[in-house]
Amino acid sequence: MISAQRRSVDVASSKTKRTGVTQPLMKTEVFSKHVTPVPPSTSAIRYEPLSRRSRKTGTLSNQRSSASCHSLSHKDAAANVPPFRSLGLEVKPEQVVWKGWEPGEEYTRNLTLKNVHVKTQKIKYKVPGSRFFSTLFPQVIVLSAGTSFTLPITFRPLEKERYDDTIEFSTASGTFNISLQALLPETNLHLPDSIHFGLVAIHDTMELSFEMKNMSSELATKFSWQVSEPFAIIPTSGLLQPTASCSPKVIFRPTTANVFDATAVCSFGQNMVKTVKLEGIGKYPHILISTSSKLPANNRSNNTMPVLKFSDINVHHQSEKFITLHNLSNVKTPFKVQRTCQTIRLDHSFSCPITSGVITPMGNFKLPITFNPQSVGNTSIEYFEVSAVGSISKSSLKCIGSSTGPNIQLNVGVINFGVVKEGKTVTRTFHITNASDCEAVYQILLDEFNSVFCVNCNSGYLAPRSSQTHIVHFTPPHSINYYRRVTILVHEQEPVFMDFIGTCHTEECKPPMLKEEHLHQYRIHVERGLSHYPPDILNSQHKEGKLVEDEDGCLMLPTDKRDISTEHQSAMDEYFDDGHNTEITHYPPHVSLDQASVWIGQVEFHTSCHVTVQLTNHTRGKITAMWIDDPAGVFEVHPSSCDVPPLKSTEFRIIFKPDAPNQFFGKELECYAFYKSMRDYRLVEGGTVAVPWLLTVDVSAHTFVGNMETFLPQTSLSTQTMTFPAVASSQNSYKTILLENKGDTPVLYQFVKTQNDGFTVKQHQGLMKSRFHISAIRLTPKKVATYHGSVTLRLNDNTKNDKTITLVGTGEQPELLLSNKGEMFFRPTCVSTTNERDYEVQNIGRIPLKFKWHFPGQISKYLSVSPIEGVIHPNEIQSHTWTFTPGAVKKYVFKPVCLTWHYHGESPQSDTYRSADAKLFAVRGVAEGFEGDIKAERCNIDFGCVITGSNSSQPLLLFNNSECDLHFRLSVEQSINSQYGEDPDENEPIGLKLNQWEAVLPARSKVIISATAHPYRRVLYTWSLYYELLNTAGEPINKNCRVLLSELSAEGVYPTLSIIDARPSGSGSSISKTQLWRWFSLEHFNTCLDSDPSTAELVYSVNTRHSTSRRPSVFTKSIMDFNFGAASIDSEPCFVSMMVKNTGLVETKWAFLFPKDMELEIDYWAETGAFDPDELHELHIQDNKLFTVKPSRGVLKPGESRTILFSYKHDVAGTHRLPVLFKIENGKEVLLNFIGVTVHLNRRYLHFPGTKHTFTPVPIGGPTPPKQLYEMYNGGCMSVIYEVAMDPLRELQEENYTHPVLTCLNPRGEIPPGTSANLEWIFSPLESKSYIVDIPIHIVGGETALITFKGIGYDGRAMGSTMPMLDQPAEFTSVPSTQKVPVPGQIMFLSEERVSFGNVPLFSRSRHVIFLCNKSLDRPLSYSWHAASELVNEVLRVEPVKGHLAPGERTMTRIMFCAVGQPSFYDLDLICEVVDEIKMAEYRSELEAWEAERDRQAQEFHITDDDVPDDVSKHDAFDVHSGPSKFSMTSPRRNLENVLNKKTTPTRLTESVVSKHSMKSEHKTFQTLPPIRFEDPVKFPSNRSRLLRQEEAGAKNEWVQPQAPKPFVSHLGVTARTHDISEFRSNFPKQSKSHFVDRNLQVAYPVLARPPDSQYPLTTCNEGEKDVVISVLGNVLRGLLDDPTFHDDVKDITSQPTPYFGQLAREEELEEDLDGDLKRASLEEEVADAQDSSDAKQDVTNEDAGIVDDTKPPETADGHEEKKDECSSAGQASSNKFMDEILRQEGSSRPSSCGTARSPRDRLGRSATTAMSSTQKRTMEQEIKRTPEFGALLEDVLSSTITNIMEEALRGDVILTARPRAVALPPSRGGDGTDKGPSPKPSLRRSALHSGSQRNRPSRSSISSVSQK
Predict the structure, then answer these.
(1) Which of 206, 333, 534, 1836 makes the best surface tag, with the fewest CB within 10 Å?
(2) Whole-number mean pLDDT of the chain?
(3) Could you tell me the pTM of the whole model?
């Protein structure tokens, strides 16, 4: 509350600062003092029942505190409102501020007060305290409701400084202040606090603007910015006028991917600074390219380059496609698009119109790519690179495009006009078809009108997939044969040829008729060289046999066996190579003209001119040249015909006679030449017919005279820059150029060559009469170089119409760019395996290449490539896959060669090449063959415990330490080892699965293979993992050779739990751990949890274990009881804490499922409504929550433990049963029957742990069968008398030949409430079989229970070691001996809660020590041991019985078990009650205060007139010795009673009662060791019944007597089994030497224990007797202290060694005058004595090894008198008497016995006069050592010695782990005869003194020294 008030005050003060109104905090501070909580006094709370006044006072103070807190909450709410508003006023302004003032001036402002209250208010105010502020004279302001008042306030400054003041207003309701402020002008800039840029790409720039404003209205200010990179501010400095603002820019340009946080500092004014926080994050951009709108999944995982394809795009057409740029980052990313090229390109078919842009975060960007092919038939490949800003992220794109052009086709190839008469015209038609999707422009090189063959239209345009029909006219002027090969030029396509043939006959002349086969024969003869011979010569040669005909009728030489050449000649080559444009011809010409084109130029009208041309005959025959006349007569040839001899030439004159002025003239003159013999068909045979040759001359001229300009041409040119396709050197590259005449007049064209560097134009001049004209240009590079040229197109012979055409071409040779400079390296490869790698090859030339790899020598055996041959296009990068397969372990160096040549498409020429045109590229490859192996990181992998049916994965790391990659395959062999006795199933599937069985492991690398174990059963699986190396075909390299890689193992398990400890509390606190273990069947429960679940139990999980029935089905056979015992009604609940541990190695999920937990909620209409009695009983238990489990479910990791608390409430009388299912996920189900009994107060009830009991098996023929116990528990409030029916036992005895098979030793007895009693049985089997008998046990005044007892007899000889002899029942073997369950409030812990002495022989003693530890750091404790039964006192002793423990202290408690009586099983319970001394002290102080108050109230009285009753004088209520709790006034120690048994005499844990001998302690000169006995009685635990304690406390009123603190109870269980001595030695031969059998304890019959009163007679004394005793003892002690002799004796004692049993110490008295023989005899005696002592030590050590624990504690001595227990006292007394009797014998067979007997007694009185022989002395000593008294005494000595050592070690005086140190004794004096005494001998006294003086020496040496002595 105080912190809340302070927070509210802080909020109010902060609001006051903002509003400018000062709020006084005085009241708040004063008020805070009232709310400080004052705790009520302890006395008032403690003694509230006695003092009602203090109770009332405490209530009043609490009311005040609550009222103060309530008012504080209202104050906090009001603190958020301005103070004047709470007073019903409204003030404007809330604070008065002056700005822009000057000294010496006067400024006035008004303050308005308004009454917003419903009542009239009177307001008073005080003038400001300073003289600079003034207002009206103070007066009372009366404001009615809703009215206002204006108060003027004047400010008169004198100096330029700030002024502050207030005006105080007061009303009847309160006071408030108004602030007055006069502020100075100051420079102030308004800036944002921070600027966030967010995410910005690295190297990108982001700009943000912000407003910077000068908040001052009077002052201008300069500013300057300072900021660190990567931030920048523009401008960095400037000047701001008053109230002006500007918008600077902040620039953020990150250079790394990081978070940038900077502070921009703005300096302004007079050293004023403001900062702006700049924040930004630099992030890497990432761009990916996809050819579709979606991003392919594989683009994210690999570096596959996307490919954009353009297929069959029309030439000179543009196609556009889009790619998508994906920004995979969260920042906007600028990008750039660049073309990547390794070589200089002359032309680019691809382009990207967008070279840069920005992609939004996680967005897309559509990027267009344009493809515009300029040539036909080529595949264009280019690469684009898209890089993000800063070139951090780059993505490449491969563009592939193919172009297509027009495809002009003719329906016929030859048109035969037949025989036509001279002057007649014959017409034929043909079709031109465009078979492509591209438009086509064509030109037929044939005159339309003035030719023998005329066509109706010699040029035109063809749309895609269209055709045209042309008409051809044949008009022969002469009777000869006509043949013309017509060329059809197509733009962007090779020319198409058509043959026209015809024959003209007259009556006089009839040449042979030309046919198509004649054309074929002529071409064959041309190829064979026979066409240069005339037909007559060929005929004569054929007739002479010099020529023969082939199959086609063609002539050939007889010796010529060559086939017809199939060398392909392109159409362009055929068109160009006619002998006129170039000197290159494919075949020798037959007839030629020296000019193919004649330019006459300008000729005046009415004038003529001529030009001479020369015709040459290259044949061997005479030919006739005949010119076709021009019908118009403009061009004439003279002579028109002429015969030319073989190999001769003749000239013809071409005469130009223009018939019109200002006109263009052009004509193609035709000249037909033929052999002279072809004029008549009779002169020629069919096989020798020769076709005529056509020679044409293009003649052009014009008649424009003077300054007369020619016509203005209206033409268009297809292009002015021509890039020729790349070709190899000396090869031809062609391009066509299209000239379109858009006018209606002919156009004269001329191609004027300005630079002729390999370029040739055909049809370089002429008259263009049609619409289209196509010229072909050829580039013939002579070398590998780039050719640049130009040609000028002059139109109409006017330079003004010139158009320059740029020509570019290259001569190429094959050029490949090999990656890594032509070197290729393979990774080391395993022998017989393959290694692949990619090797990039790029065509950096402009011609497509065909390649083929060649492997010289034997390389092909080890090396291969794919593809081995193929085509690589210009600028293409191909990746070839090379495969290396080594055959041996060695290094390989090979040089494969790549042969490349020009690729001509699909033509046959592509497969052939000339050696001059091909080029070789060699690659140097290096590889090496290795042998490798694979190893696993772990040779053994253990999956641990895997739940059966589930999976567990482990990474299997495989290493390849070799230098080569290994292709391996794994295999598994499985073996099963069943630890539960199950037979392995051969058909069981393999329980190991691998994520990959076959893989390739790279060199020097590792791979993680996930191995998954899937056990099918609860067995131990072992898998052997093998591997084998594979070759390329997947076959093992070495067959039948598998290598073991690793061994894997897994154990199929089920989740298991185990109860490791259990502890009762509440009403079950008196139950021992063994009882709890039996009642809850925990041994059976752990066995069930460890067993395999059935299939039905695994069907459901914890979450799905439901049922629609009220009683769910049970799928398990494991059913057991959890018996909570019995208690009276209204007792404390019975709590059982169990610690559950996950004993397996898998996580375990468990749950306790009550019937309601498993019942599904169903609708009301589905309920049956009928409940049987069992269901009603269970519902009753669950509704009242009689049984609870906390927690009811949980999860335990391996090795983890958890405490589960079970509780049973004794609220409802009766027997309660509830089935609870304990379910383990994927494991066992156990049905637990929770059983609890609540007994009525007046009912006698005996709780049996079960109706069946099985005795421990007993062998037949045993001499003394053991006594066995059956436990019964009285859970009620009344004592129970039980009676065992003996009739069934008698019947059993009669059935077994009157042999007592089963005997009950205590058939009748009484059991106090809340305690247990044991029925003692002796099971003595007669036969080797099982005995079963039902015995009724009757409860007097109660019910009768029928218990079935079962005993098993067996033949020990037949069973052998298979039937071990147990020291306790098998169900108790797993009971934990240490406490693991934490108990709330427990601060004292036992080191062991269960001590097992095992199998011990009768008449032996076994010892054990336990430690008690006080874990508290601030609370002292007191403890006391109590016996749970009378049997404890008979066999057990505990020392000390009680004690105190300081905080953190540890103490040792010694437990001795004395095996007496008959052979028996022992299961004893010791109870340790622990009391907190602090609580006890508080209780005592409270009790004293209560008694004082009681005495005060008893003594005070009021005299009234009423009679005093008689019973007042009794003062029963105030009697000290009355009431439920009595305290002894004579003893300071509180007597503990067994309130459960209601006994007046407590049961003591006292001395043993096996011997009645008492030994009087004889006087000892030296102090003896502390006795092993008990001084205090052992009592039963205090009452546990809540109801009984309430009854004992009586009715509650305000005079309640303080109750003693409840002690904490701890149980210590002790188990043992005693055997007859002969039986023990036969069954346990190895342990017989570990036990010492005290023959003094062998008595015929066990003697009953004496009552404690007879052992320790107690007497009482009064105060006078007490004073006398104290006075007498005080005088005696004072006399001793004043006696100087006593002081001297004490000093002498400290200097002498401590004696150990002086009556046994043998000391020799030698006189000074003894002769040498006596000395030698003494020396021999010493040697023999030492040897015998060593033997005795060995015997005693072996006998005592099994009963003495090395951790036994010591005990301090309590005086010179040694107190022995009765077991040892009898032995000591007998031993002393026997020794005296032997030593007193004289004159018998032992001659020296008399002297020996007197020597120890009279050592100081006289000296020995005679010497006895050493043999007699040794014999006497051995007989003494064989006596039982001597053995008992020696055992007692050793036990006490070890106890002392343990006490010293516990106190830290001795370090047991330190190394032993040897102490050298001083040399003995003697040898010269002067020494009066014998040489000193290490006696028991000296050893004890030596060990006692060396407290810091190690215990090991101490033990060894004691053993030697």
Answers:
(1) 206
(2) 78
(3) 0.55
